[in-house]
Amino acid sequence: MNRLFDLDLIPDLLTNLNAEELDALICQWEIQARDDQWPPLLSQGGDPWTVWLVMGGRGAGKTRTGAEWVKAIALGEPSLAIEPVGRIALIGETKADVRDVMIEGVSGILSVHRNDERPVWEPSRRRLEWPNGAVAQAFSADDPESLRGPQFEFAWLDELGKWRYAQEAFDMLQFGLRLGHHPRQLVTTTPRPQPLLRRLAADPKTALTKVSTRANAANLAPTFFKQIVARYAGTRLGRQEIDGDFVEERSDALWTRDMLEACRVKHAPPLRRIVVAIDPPASSHQRADACGIVAAGIHEEGFIYVLEDASLSAARPGAWSRAALALYHKHDADELIAEVNQGGEMVAAVIAEAEDNVPVRMVRATRGKYLRAAPVAQLYEQQRVCHVGALAKLEDEMCAFGPDGLPGRASPDRLDALVWAITALALTPEPPRPRMRKI
Fold this sequence. Notes:
alpha/beta, Rossmann fold, Nucleotidyltransferase, domain 5, single chain
């Protein structure tokens, strides 16, 4: 749906309003809402959506989004509804969640209404009723059978990602969404790698909105925001609870999220040898594989530190050679490592053309990717490898890489570069003249 007026015209409108009118205008959700809090057009790609899935970090404004839309459709506000919706389902993980968050919460349904339009909340009947006769019923996802029988035009499902009986409750709701011209449902949740959420996110009938906690920083305590971001940014928990990302992990992967979280450090100590490994793409076509570029170093006591992932999406040789050289100089590396199988000789020529006297060591793959990666994963299990800071995209590949490679036969370019770097540092004879270096 489109907003009824152009937000760019607001400054001109304000000059002609009195104080009472200004107060009323400020309360309008159409003025306050961010773009990611506004419902998408009813038609996406030619097909009407049935689910609006809002996946966001903690404090991103998901509850306010849900409460405001429930209010708008119950009252029939023209910007969000053609006419009032008479029957609404409110579903949270438990009855207490529906009451304390969705209805009575700081950003809940009661809080977003003016006194003259506020619905009456009847806790004993678990029901909200508006002055115009619209009714919302509260349900617990812990009791899917309670959804058997009632019927609705609209539903708001909150924190679906943590429902114990998610599929059962969702299925029962679908049979009840049978009123009106086009029954719809809004799902507001922090993402978790739950089968139902993954299916909804991939469904063409779903309108997907992703929002980070950062988008709502203006409405959060500054100390909370700074502390949370500083502590969790880039970690598995931070990506899920701040960025609103799915953080996947397959059961047969060589690496686990717990393994990688346990090896994370803020800084590397002085290192005696540093390498930058390059897994070059086979071509520079826009659909070609990425170019894996990873820097790592080894400490005097044998511990390995993965310093940075500077991998690029499909790019021409000039672009990734500049990125590799920049990483080489940034970390004062000893040499570049390049895989021969994917154009290693070309890498040496491209690097030499960009800059003379940079040592490039050729490595050749004689075994499959999984067999090459397994000894490196064993070093992680032995707690001999550390990641300096957050390496989100690299870690995603690591935790998705199994005996059959990555899902969808994607190329593990970042992972290949990591494997070559660690293999050169710890699993092959070391070249002479190591030097002590600082990061």
